[in-house]
Amino acid sequence: MKGSFIARNPSILVFLLCLAAFTLVITLMSHAMGTGLVSTSFVKTLGKTLCLCLVAIAMDLVWGYCGILSLGHFAFFGLGGYMIGMWLMYARTELIVAESLSNAAIPPTDQEVVDAIGTQIFGVVGSSDFPAIWAFAHSLPLQLALVVLVPGLLALVFGWLAFRSRVTGVYLSILTQAMTLALSLYLFQNESGLRGNNGLSGLQNLPGVSASQDWVSLWFLWGSALALGLGYVVCAMVVSGKFGSVIRGIRDDEARVRFLGYSVEGYKLFIFTFTAIIAAIAGALYYPQAGIINPGEVAPIASIYLAVWVAIGGRGRLYGAVIGAALVSLVSTWFTGGMVPSVPLGFYTIDWVDWWLVLLGLSFVLVTLFAPKGIGGLFDLVTARVVPDRHGADYGPDKGSLREEEGRK
Q1: d(CA 114, CA 108)
Q2: What is the tens place of the pLDDT at every residue in 12-69?
Q3: Buried b (16+ CB within 10 A) or exposed e, 108-125
Q4: C-alpha angle 153-304-274 in degrees, rounded to nearest 5
């Protein structure tokens, strides 16, 4: 028997075992388990890091494998957060309003309850009416469906318009960045119905859950680890076999793949939409751990950071995207959290909070110039991949195929 897909791909099994071991160790060291070796805030940081690893995998699939440098995938990440955040705010506010009106002499009507909820949520922007986009905020199943449908539909429409026009290269990157900027500017407006610059807050409080944040953070860590593991396996299946060969062919020589009769636009549209949905799911898990989301989260710079993570980790390798996102996220937390002491030089004091982005940009430049395969490329050195010794035999069935000595050059 050939065995399962995971059994035939040991690297996937190694990744899943490492992820499971990591999750188990953090669980046993958490406050919820009584040891307290890892603080609840750091458990949340690790949970959010796993979500960033998932969106990095999506970015690697669309850029590293299909060759589409999207500078807008973090917009889908943010939309996923907004969709789940709407339900979290509505349900939590509904409980607060119900408790405050429970002692009223005359029981409030359903409309009065809805009006009170609207006042609580939108009073900060001078309104009390629910916008149309909040029509399903009362239903968790419907909002979970919107986590997938809204970003997926946006990616489908945008991708269809862009790919059918055969926009490629830097022009496509500019278009994706323009889409992200337009969405960000729209969300900044109070009329967007998502509280403008105030964003959605208090998302870390799960409605109807009396458990402490120690346990809630641990639940989200488990959920994030599960999503990352499933996402890794699904993306590995997508890039394997004939489908994976086609999208890599599109990346390397789009014109030749089209000449061979493949629907290049169809493949690119599927990958673009599929990765947008993955990014949205990652965002839906990330922002309840962050506790707040605002329009700044979907600004174009966030998508540029995403590309930097993948480049540093090594694009074209799913594990490389995970390494890059995890490394940059944790190092960023270390530098910007004030854990690195400042360096006084007499005439100037180096404050790492201010210099972190400079270090990140410098790392990206150095990796691009001297290590184009990223950190993931180091695994090639460890495994010592070489051309197999064919003892001078042809590389293919034709007599004109490259021979061993030619292939080594």
Answers
A1: 10
A2: 999 999 999 999 999 999 988 878 889 999 999 999 999 999 999 999 999 999 999 9
A3: beeeeebbbbbebbbeeb
A4: 30
Q: Are 382 and 319 in contact (CB under 8 A)?
A: no
Contacts of 93 (CB under 8 A, 6+ apart): 117, 120, 121
Closest alpha carbon to 239 in 21, 3, 5: 5
Report helix, strand or coil for 357: helix
Report the alpha-carbon distance of residue 276 to residue 264 in Å, rounded.
18
Helices (H), ranges, 131-263? 140-164, 169-188, 213-238, 241-252, 254-259
Global confidence as pTM: 0.89
Phi and psi angles of residue 33, each rounded to the nearest 5 degrees, phi first: -90, 0
**Token pair belonging to 236:** 């590995």
Distance (Å, whole) CA 198 – CA 372: 40
Say how far apart CA 118 and CA 206 lie, in whole Å.
19
Tokens 């062919």 belong to residue: 249
Residue 107 has pLDDT above 90, yes or no: no
* Closest to 373 in 3D by CA, of 311, 301, 302: 311
* The Cα angle at residue 292 between residues 291 and 294, in degrees rounded to 5: 165
What's the Cα-to-Cα distance from 358 to each of 335, 343, 353, 364, rounded to whole Å?
12, 16, 10, 10
Euclidean distance between CA atoms 237 and 65, whole angstroms: 13
